Backbone:
């Protein structure tokens, strides 16, 4: 009797990070095939993460690349369906809230293959975000909903989703605990950039609401420049393109305090996050990593799906408002240092594998 087969669909940097600890646990019991959609398609945003995290390279790379949401999702659907028809898995595993997540879940559901969603139940309650639409749709197609927090479980319950819901903790916490010591030992990024701990800000910007709106991106860039502090800014390819399009790249390159770099590997990012004075980001994953590392986070969005980080006082939402960003850089500090460990105990990946092992027997 062959082992139960799982096809894992990933396509963006955060999904590679989340997949790493889960994949290690799954392969103790199951046959796993990995499909990389190619949503992030250059070396700096994909292959390097597989190498650093010790995850086998994908069995399939669809090479979809960039494009409109409809184009990306359509191309992914076609490619994933071909793989599923060939591999005939019992379960398709998807992560998070990207177009790769939606395409993987939809292709599986149409073929009547069970869907397992890691990070189920997250809600920002802002349907202007493509990611929010993806989350809701994928949860309602899924058979196994692995919720990272009690808040996520409650969100699902309010939508009538109770069967198949499991509170597991957060797999990104697993990944951080497994890789932080390695990052500290191996990364030389502080020396390479001439940085000292707690003497710089770390910034990431990639959400369409910030990169596709010139006024938002301009306000964020001006805040970085006017902060007067060293700002390390690893720029996502979409962000680099938007900076050029809106004529903001020159201002950043002239600014003496902004250190703009290409996308960095996971280990370098962990070291930069751990040693930053504050982090400015519109990334959900970076918000969580800041919380895990107890670094104050300034979120360049009006809403977040990771409400726990705000409730505990480690995260403040400022949108793309220059004055609010600058005020937070100057004044924001964790309110009393509350820290309630709402993301599990670092065993989420093992819990997920054990649940699937149980239902497969």
Residues:
């Amino acid at each position: 009797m062959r082992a139960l087969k799982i096809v894992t669909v990933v396509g963006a940097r955060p999904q590679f990070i989340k997949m790493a600890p889960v994949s290690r646990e799954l392969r103790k019991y199951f046959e796993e095939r990995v499909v990389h959609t190619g949503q992030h398609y250059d070396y700096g945003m994909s292959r390097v993460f597989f190498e650093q995290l010790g995850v086998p390279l994908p069995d399939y790379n669809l090479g979809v690349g960039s494009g409109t949401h409809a184009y990306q999702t359509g191309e992914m659907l076609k490619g994933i369906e071909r793989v599923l028809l060939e591999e005939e898995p019992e379960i398709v595993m998807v992560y998070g809230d990207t177009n790769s997540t939606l395409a993987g879940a939809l292709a599986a559901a149409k073929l009547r293959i069970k869907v397992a969603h890691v990070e189920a139940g997250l809600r920002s309650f802002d349907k202007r975000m493509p990611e929010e639409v993806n989350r809701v749709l994928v949860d309602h197609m899924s058979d196994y909903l692995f919720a990272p927090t009690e808040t996520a479980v409650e969100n699902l319950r309010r939508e009538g989703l109770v069967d198949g819901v499991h509170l597991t903790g957060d797999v990104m916490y697993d990944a951080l605990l497994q890789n932080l010591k390695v990052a500290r030992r191996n990364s030389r990024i502080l020396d390479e950039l001439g940085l000292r701990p707690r003497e710089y800000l770390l910034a990431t910007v990639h959400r369409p609401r910030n990169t596709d709106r010139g006024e938002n991106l301009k306000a964020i860039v001006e805040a970085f420049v006017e902060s007067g502090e060293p700002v390390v800014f690893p720029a996502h390819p979409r962000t680099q393109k938007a900076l050029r399009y809106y004529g903001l790249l020159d201002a950043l390159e002239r600014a003496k305090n902004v250190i703009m770099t290409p996308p960095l590997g996971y280990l370098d990012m962990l070291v930069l996050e751990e040693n930053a004075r504050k982090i400015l980001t519109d990334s959900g994953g970076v918000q969580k990593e800041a919380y895990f590392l107890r670094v104050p986070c300034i979120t360049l969005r009006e809403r977040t799906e990771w409400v726990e980080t705000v409730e505990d006082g480690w995260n403040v939402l400022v949108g793309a408002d220059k004055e609010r960003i600058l005020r937070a850089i100057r004044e924001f500090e964790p309110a009393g240092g509350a820290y309630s460990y709402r993301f599990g105990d670092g065993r989420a990946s093992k819990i997920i594998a054990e649940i699937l092992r149980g239902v497969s027997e």
